[in-house]
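Supplementary Note 3. Input sequence used for the single-chain structure prediction.
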Amino acid sequence: MEIELLGTESLGVRGLSCYIDTGSHRILIDPGVALGYTRWKLHPHPLQALMGDIIRAKITMYWKKADYIVLTHMHGDHVPLYNANPFQLDLYMLDHHGDKKIIAPHPSILNKKERIRLAKIHELYGERLITIKWRAGEIGPVRFFGPYNHGLSYTGVYIVYISGSPSILHLSDTGLLAEKVVEIAREYRPDIVITDGPPLYRYLHDEKTAREILNKAEQVLNRIARYADKIIVDHHINRCDQGYRWIRSMRNNAIMTAAEYMGKKPLLLESWRRTLYQLLPVSNYWFTNDYRGTIVKYKDILYRLIGRINDSALDINESLFYSLLSRALTEK
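The predicted structure, written as discrete structure tokens, is reproduced below.
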């Protein structure tokens, strides 16, 4: 079975997308890409946008290959959008032909904005779009359960199990905060679990709440670890250095980020946006004028930076990122 983690925070963007080829079926889960439109009053840096373009190209390729596409929920970093901004995946740039099936939440559990997103997909795919509202079911190779809470909120999120060797349980944005997912892990005993971590970056100002959500996430993570061989923890938790430090404190042969699963060092560009602007100054509205021409200028820098990060023997953090990016800027 072929498994590729495509777009997550440790791989440079917002998302939790992956591609699975079982030999009989090709399944694309949560094919969305996003960058926080503003963070610390800064828009995404061109180097971030370049990384986003690279990952969008991968997802576009796998979208065309897939015969099943699973949308666990309708947030903009998990689905292609009809009204995408420059840093998201444009629905109309994807292949709309063939007989691929798209599995998505039923409109009855969506808010108005999400229903519009779903309706735009339906306009293009018609009966190939299958919506689900049951607690559990199976469509082709995809077994689904839910909906569960989205981290600390009540947005409905489905989780997905794919049997095979290895078997995969994709917990989407349940954030290691939905204890009921442990029951699914116990029943199916997946080889690999792919999960979001809690949104720690939102609570750095509130030490008590941050500590509480990390304690709960640790309990859920340890319980899942009893039933899985590998657990990939990524997405919201990696939007701050403190979140990655928490993963490092748990990390062993079984627990890792998406980047580490793919044999790479984490590239937490969303977390390090201020450093990008500090070392590579650019107008905050650079993308309104010659988006493509601007990001191409950063291609060599990005590849040198990734090479230095992957060659480093040290665990990556923002201070080390500053040093490695500084060196990459002086290389030819």
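The chain has a mean pLDDT of 95. Residues 112 and 122 are 15 Å apart (CA to CA).
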